[in-house]
Design a protein that fits this description.
The chain is mostly beta strands. The chain is built from four helices and 14 strands. The chain has helices spanning 16-19, 71-79, 92-97, 108-112; strands at residues 23-24, 26-31, 37-42, 45-49, 54-59, 81-86, 116-118, 125-127, 132-143, 150-161, 166-167, 170-171, 179-181, 187-189. It is globular, with a radius of gyration of 18 Å.
Length: 201
């Protein structure tokens, strides 16, 4: 099968998300300039640089009460900070609960029963028991083609690692089974690892 996206694919559901998988999930916490807190998951997310450490995520839809984007991007525009919380398998239902397009005044921490703590280097909340949380300062927001497509880049200025996830000096992802986004309504979890050594040149 071959298709040109602008002409449609002819399948019951768009296969694009199912092709680019698995994707890590950024459970992003923010606070707006009035003190309203938000927590929402984004699966167009990844690390993009080591030194200094930087990450990116993309927001691809809009809410009527947020001027062409969603709460997370709107809050970051105001405050220029955000926190990326890593989602453990055991947190899947809470994460899913926070994915709704709620009114901007809704506090998803309270809605989903998520315990929160304060970040150390930025003015934002974080998920208290997340395996890891990355405190970020905005570097740039890039408008992408499409009505509500934005990519947000941030520099990581603080890192929280849950103590029980560190084994023999290594951040052990099998200790919490990170949740990954697949296509459609599907998710997966990381349980098994194997190693490969790069060839010496």
């Amino acid at each position: 099968m071959f298709y040109i996206p602008k002409n449609g694919h002819g399948l019951p559901h768009n296969p694009f998300n199912a092709v680019v998988t698995p994707r890590p999930i950024a459970w992003i916490s923010t606070r707006d300039s009035d003190g309203n807190e938000n927590l929402a998951p984004y699966s167009f997310f990844n690390a993009v640089a080591y030194e200094p450490p930087q990450i990116m995520f993309a927001s691809t839809s809009a809410k009527l009460d947020r001027d062409g984007t969603k709460d997370t991007v709107s809050n970051i525009r105001e405050t220029e900070v955000f926190c990326v919380n890593i989602v453990a398998y055991e947190m899947r239902d809470m994460m899913n609960k926070t994915s709704g397009a709620y009114p901007k005044e809704t506090n998803e921490f309270e809605l989903a029963g998520v315990e929160k703590s304060e970040c150390s280097e930025i003015n934002a909340p974080r998920v208290a028991n997340a395996p890891a949380s990355l405190e970020c300062k905005l570097t740039q927001i890039v408008k992408l083609p499409g009505e509500a497509n934005f990519t947000v880049f941030g520099e990581v200025v603080g890192v929280h690692l849950r103590d029980d996830c560190i084994k023999d000096g290594v951040f052990d992802v099998t200790s919490f089974s990170p949740l990954a986004r697949l296509g459609y309504r599907d998710y997966s979890r990381v349980e098994n690892l194997f190693s490969l050594t790069r060839p010496e040149v």
